[in-house]
Amino acid sequence: MASERTFVAIKPDGVQRGLVGEILARFERKGFKLIALKQLTPSRELAEKHYGVHRDRPFFSGLVDFITSGPVVVMVWEGDGVIASARRLIGATKPLEAEPGTIRGDLAVNIGRNVIHGSDGPDTALFEIDLWFESAELNVWIPSDQRWRVE
Ligand code: IDP
Ligand code: MG
Question: N or C: the chain end with fewer CB closer than 10 Å?
Answer without folding.
Answer: C
